[in-house]
Amino acid sequence: MCGEDWLPVWQEAPIYDRLIGELGDVPTQVRREAERVLRELEQVMRLATPLSGGLPQQMWPPSPRQ
C-alpha cells in the first residue's frame, strides 16, 4: 500500500477533506510553523557566533567528567 497508487486513494478519502474542513490543513500549518522556528533559530545562531567564525562561548560551566 506504500506504492505509487496510495496517494490518489488518500486524496479521494472523504474523511481527509472533512478533517481539513473542520480543523484546517494541520500538516501545512505545522510545516509553516517549523520553517518559521528554523528561520528564527538560524538568526539567533548567527548572532551568537563570534565574527571570528569560532563557536559561541559556553554560557555555563561544563559538567564534571566521570
Describe the structure in your own words.
By secondary structure, the protein is mainly alpha-helical. It has a domain at 25-49. Helices cover 61% and strands 0% of the residues. It contains 3 helices and no strands. The model has no long low-confidence stretch (mean pLDDT 75).
- End-to-end separation in angstroms reads 49 Å
Shape: elongated
Instruction: State the low-pLDDT regions, or none.
Output: none
Overall pLDDT, averaged? 75
- The percent range for helix content is 55-70%
For the sheet with most strands, the description reads:
none
Say how many strands there are. Answer: 0
Q: What is the percentage of strand-forming residues?
A: under 5%
Number of helices: 3
Rounded radius of gyration (Å) = 22 Å
Reading the helices and strands in chain order gives HHH
Structural class: mainly alpha
